[in-house]
Amino acid sequence: DLTLTTGGFPLLAADERHLALKAARALKAHTGYAGGAAIHVYKRIPVGAGMGGGSADAAAVLHGLNRLWQAGLSQQELEALGLTLGADVPFCLRGGLTRTTGVGEVMEPVPCGREYPLVVIQPCRGLSTGKVFEAWHGEAEHRRPRTAEALEALRTGNHVLLARSLGNVLQDVSQSMRPDIGAAINALK
């Protein structure tokens, strides 16, 4: 059978809602594998921060069980199965730096001229990714980052151009859903 345990912080329920268990069940159904696995997920990143942690967990399970069960699914087959679980799962299966379009299935590798260290701060409790996208799709206008400039900045390693060209299209709707986020962001500036 398939079992799931969790650890780390924040501790997540190890039940049917967990994307890692959904991934294991999807792979088992897709391959017809008769056995099971004991899966343990140890969290080290914030939940509900839009970082794709659940998608990364699902990708790790698909990748790991494909090898453990010797299912023989190709990268393309794993990514297609991953897409049924969430738009970020194919990216997490592939890894690296990509320009991702479509629903999350069209990935083009992006060369990068340098490393960029990041500091991630989650100033308040998380938001539901589904609810954020639902609210975002309901808005009439969207600010967009300057993608062509960002891609050029990544290729050449120009951190000044990169900073000027990036943007978070979900920031406004997230702040409207959690007004305390704006105060926290302003306090960090």
Q: Could you explain how this protein is built, in words?
A:
It is a single chain. By secondary structure, the protein is α+β, with helices and mostly antiparallel strands. It is built from 9 helices and 4 strands, in the order βαβαααββααααα. Strands 1-2 form a two-stranded parallel sheet. A two-stranded antiparallel ribbon has the order 3-4. Helix 1 (19-31) runs parallel beside helix 2 (53-68) and helix 6 (147-156) runs antiparallel to helix 7 (159-165). The radius of gyration is 18 Å and the shape is globular. The mean pLDDT is 87.
Q: What Rg do the Cα atoms give?
A: 18 Å
Mean residue pLDDT: 87
Approximately how much beta-strand content do the residues carry?
5-15%
**Biggest β-sheet description:** 2 strands, parallel
- For the record, give the distance between the C-alpha atoms at the N and C termini, rounded to a whole number: 50 Å
Shape category: globular
Strand order of the largest sheet: 1-2
Order of helices and strands: EHEHHHEEHHHHH
Low-pLDDT ranges: none
Number of helices: 9
Percent helix: 40-55%
- How many distinct beta strands? 4
